[in-house]
Design goal:
The structure is a single chain. With about 170 residues, this protein is α+β, with helices and mostly antiparallel strands. The protein has helices at about 1-10, 35-45, 85-90, 115-120, 135-140, 145-155; strands spanning about 65, 80-85, 95-100, 105-110, 120-125, 125-130. It has one domain (about 30-155). A hairpin with a 6-residue loop joins strand 3 (about 95-100) and strand 4 (about 105-110). It starts with a helix and ends in a 14-residue tail after the last helix. The relative contact order is 0.11.
Amino acid sequence: MERRVRSMVTKRKPRGERTPPVAPPPRPSSRDFPLLREKVADRASYTCEYCQTPEQASFAPHQVDHIVSVKHGGDSGIDNLAFACTLCNRRKGSDLSSLDPETDQLVPLFHPRRDQWHEHFKFNGGELVGLTPSGRATIHLLRLNHPHRVQERLVRFGWRWTREEGPPNA
């Protein structure tokens, strides 16, 4: 009996009975993309939904980010798309979670469709402060408090200084 169970478990399907590959979700056509981008940007008030940088203050146009990437089963529907600056989109990649730097626990990243930004983040001068494990993990993974990003925010908020002086104490 034991031999029979093992042989049933290790049997492979004959070549003709292979499972067909699952088709990826449909992507918007290049004809529809400008309208979709406009909807996503308008919903976000033309501001990165992760770091809050306005597109107008950025050197590169913001991008449409798949919150759950296509490779993880996400679709290209409006509810799975976020407006993101180039740096946030590139650093987030297809990640869905990261380690909270305070607890070393794996936690989900900030999700712009499900989460409220002000519940997870706050500004302290030019720095972002994570108020939740997801907020802290997102700040860490996206490097939102890199000195150049902090300086960029301070300048945007109206603070001026020279490189030699460094930023004022906030």
